[in-house]
Amino acid sequence: MPWTSALAGLLCRPVRALIRAWVEVRLTEPDPASLGLSPTAATVYVLPHPALSDRLLLETLCARRGLPAPTLPLSEHHPTLPRCVALPGRRRKAQAPFLSYLEWLHDHPEQDLELLPVSVFWGRAPGKRFGLWSLLTADDWALTGRLRRALAVLVHGRSVEVHFGAPLSLRGLLERRPDALTNRKVARLLRVHFRRQRTRVLGPDLSHRRTLIDGVVASPTVRQAIAETAKSERLKTPRVKARARRYGREIASNMTYPVLRLLDGLLERLWTRLYDGVDVQGIESVKALAGDHTLVYVPCHRSHIDYLLLSYVLFHEGLMPPHIAAGRNLNMPLVGPLLRRGGAFFLRRSFKGNRLYRAVFQEYLERLLSRGHSLEYFIEGGRSRSGRLLDPRPGMLAMTLRSHARGLKARGHSGRLAFIPVAIGYERIIESDSYRAELAGKPKRRETPLGLFSVLGRLRQPFGRVSVTIGTPLPLSPFLDAETPEWRQASDERWQQRAVPRLGEELARRINAAVPLNAVNLIALVLLATPHRAIERDLLERQLELLVNLAQRTSVNPDDPGSLSAAQGLTGSPAAWIPHVESLGFIERRAQTLGELVLASPEQTSLLSWYRNNVLHHFALAGLVAFAFRNNARFTEEELHAVLAPGWPVLVRELYITPPKDLAAAIGATLYQLTREGLLERGTPTDAGQNRTPRWQRPAARLAAREQLHLLGRLVQPSLERGYLLLTSLLRLPSASLTREQLAEQSGLLAERLALLSGLDAPEFFDRRLFAGLVASLEADGWVWQDEAGRLCYGAALTATADHIHTLFDPALRHRLQQLATPAITPSPSPTADTTPTTPPADGA
What we know:
It is a single chain. By secondary structure, the protein is an alpha/beta fold. It folds into 4 domains: 2-202, no CATH class; 209-513, Glycerol-3-phosphate (1)-acyltransferase, CATH 3.40.1130; 533-713, no CATH class; 717-835, no CATH class. The strands form 6 sheets. Strands 7, 8, 9, 10, 11, 12, 13 and 14 form an 8-stranded mixed beta sheet that branches. Strands 1, 2, 3, 4, 5 and 6 form a 6-stranded mixed beta sheet that branches. Helix 13 links the parallel strand 9 (323-327) and strand 10 (344-347). The longest helix has 24 residues, at 179-202. It is globular, with a radius of gyration of 31 Å. The relative contact order is 0.06. It catalyses: sn-glycerol 3-phosphate + an acyl-CoA = a 1-acyl-sn-glycero-3-phosphate + CoA. Pathway: Lipid metabolism; Phospholipid metabolism; CDP-diacylglycerol biosynthesis; CDP-diacylglycerol from sn-glycerol 3-phosphate: step 1/3. InterPro entries: GPAT/DHAPAT (IPR022284), GPAT/DHAPAT_C (IPR045520), GPAT/DHAPAT_LPLAT (IPR041728), GPAT_PlsB (IPR028354), Plipid/glycerol_acylTrfase (IPR002123). Residues 822-845 are annotated as: Disordered.
C-alpha cells in the first residue's frame, strides 16, 4: 500500500542512523575477503526474509568491508533490478524474486549473476521460550511485527552475527525448463541453505522443559519401565510415575538464552584474567558438518574448565553450544542451576540396579539426538589425574549408538550423526595441586560451591595460554558399516558389544592425535628424561628444537594427509619458552660459570609429569627407535623392525596412538628423520646375497648427538620397562600359573619396589591400571590367553620373543628385574597340572 511505503521511507533514515551508531557486528563468518566473488559477475545479496534492519545493516557492513553496495542498481539499463532481495515469507503467496534476473541473463548472454546468501542474527536464542524476555530476544523467522524487530535491534545491537553463504552462479542454474520452474528451484536451494545456517547457529527449537519431561515419561519405553518397577517393588503405578518425572527433572537441562549471554560475558572476562589467550584450530571441519549433522563433541577431560571452555569457543565461532553431560556431583547449590541453564544435563555415576532411571535417561538422550541437538560428553568418565588419556567408558557411547540404531528402525533411516573429537591443551591447569595430592595417595575432595569459588583467589596467578584443537570428525554410520555391518538389520543389540569398544578406541586415538604441543609439555618431555631433572640450557634448547622438527614432519592423522601437525600452533622459539615456563612456576634456572642450568624440584617434577603425559604419544615411535640404539650400536631396517614390532602394539594401546598402516615404512621414515637431524648415521652396507643392506648406527664422534639420542629414547623407557617387567613376572612361572588380576597386581608391586630402589618418585610408573592394560594388550594380540579356570597361558612364541627383545634393555636392569621377580610371584594353585594348555585357542594370533 502507498502509505506503508511512505512510512517505510520515513523510518529508513533514523533506523539507518541508529544502526550505524549503535549496532556492532560481533562475528562476520566467513571473512568477506575469502568469499571468492567473481570480478566479472554482478553480486546480488539474498536475505532469508524481508527486514528493513537486515538490509540497512548489510549496507553498513558492505561499506566497511569493501563489498559491492546493496543500494546500487544492477545495471544502468535496468535501474529497477536491486542488488538486495529477500525471499518471501512462508505465509506469503508471492513468487520468488528471481524471474526478472533470469530475464536479464537471457538479454545479456555474456554476463553472469552471483547470488550471495546473507543471514543476519540479532541474538542467538536457541529456540522457543515464553515470557517478555524471550519475546524481545528470540531471533525467529516468524516475526510478529516491526516493533519486535526494533526492540531486538536495541537489545542485541552490540551482539549481531552476519553469516555469508557460498556465492551461487545464477547462469549455472539456467536450464531449458521454463523460467518459472528455475525461479522456484533457486528459491528452494536458498531456503535449504538458510535452514541449515539457522540450525548451525541457533540449533533446533527447544521444547519447554516441562513439555519435554512429560514426553519422556509418556514414551512407551518409560511406561514399560514404570509398569515393571511398580510390579517388582509392589508399588502403585502413579507413585512410580511420579518418581520417573522426578528423575526427568533431575536430569534435564534448561538451556536459556539470557544465561548463555551472561555466561558469555563472564567467561570472556574470566579467560582474559586467567589466560594469556585461547587458541582455536580445526573449527572449520565442525562448521562444515553443523548444518546437516547431529554433532556429538567428545573432548578429553583435563579440568573442570573443559565444560565452559568448549561452549565458549563454539558460541564465539557462531555455533550453537551443546547440551553437556555432567556428573550429578556438580548439581550443587548455586552452581548446578547455572550450569543447567547453560545447557548441562546431569547423570548419576552408575545406573546399576535402577531400570527406571536408565529408561528415563535413555529416552531423554534419544529425544535430544532425534531432534538434532548437539551433545557433549567425556568418554573418559572423569578427569585425568596423570595427564594420560583414560580408557574410554562405554556408558554414554552405548546409549548414543542405541539411540542412533533406534532412529533407523523408527524413521526407516538413521540421521546423520558425527562425533567431534576435541583436544584441550593447558599450559597450566587450575587443579595442579589437587592432582598432585591425589596421585600421592590422598583421597579425592568432594566438589562444593566454596571449593569451586576458591578458584577465584588464584586469578592473579599466571596460567599461560590454552588451546582447543578439533580432531578429525568421525561420521557414525560409515564407521558402523565398516566395523559391524549387521547393525542396520540386527534385531537385538549384541552388535554393540563389539562396536562400543572399537568406537571408544577410535575416538580416543583421534583425540590424542589432535593434542597440541606447547612450551610446558615440550620442556617437561626433555627435563623428565634426564636422570636428575637437571640439564644444561644449550642442550635443552637443542632438544626442544629437535622435538619440534620431529613433530612438524608428522601429520596428526596418518590417513589424512591434510591434517595438521601437533606443532601447528606453536609460536616463539626454545630460547623464549624457557623463561616463560619458569614464570609459570614449573622450572628453575641457575646461573653457573660454565653455563646456565635448568632444573626442577621434586614438587615441580611431579607437576611436569602430568604435562609430559599429555603429549608423550606424539614421540612414541621416534623414542622407540632411539631407545633401540641405547644398548645396540647398529641395526638394519629389517633387524630393527624385528626387534620393535612386538612391543609397538603395546605402546599403541597404552598411549592411544593412531598407528601407521605400514610399521616397517614408518620405522624407515623415522630413521631418515633422525639421520637428517644428525642423531644417526647411515653406515656401510653389508653383503647379503645380491642385496646390499644399509645399516644405521650411532654417530661415533659426535657426543652431543648421542646425548640427544639418549634423551629421546628415555621418553618411552618407562613404558617399555613396565612391559618388560610384566613379561619377566609372567615368564618366571610356568604357563597357567597366574590370573589376569594376579599378574597386574604382582607387576605393580614389583614396579613400585623398583621405583623406590631406584629413587624414582613417579607414582604413575607403578599404576595398577597401566599393568591391567598391558595384560589386555597381550591378550588382544594373542600372546596370552585364558584357560577355563581364568589363568593366563602362553606358548613358545612369547618366550622366544622375550629372548629376542631383551637386548633392548640394559643388562643391569635385566638382572635387577629378575632378582625382584623371583621371590615375589606366587602362582595360583593348579588343580590338574597335566591339563595346562600349551597352545593358543584356534582363534588366537
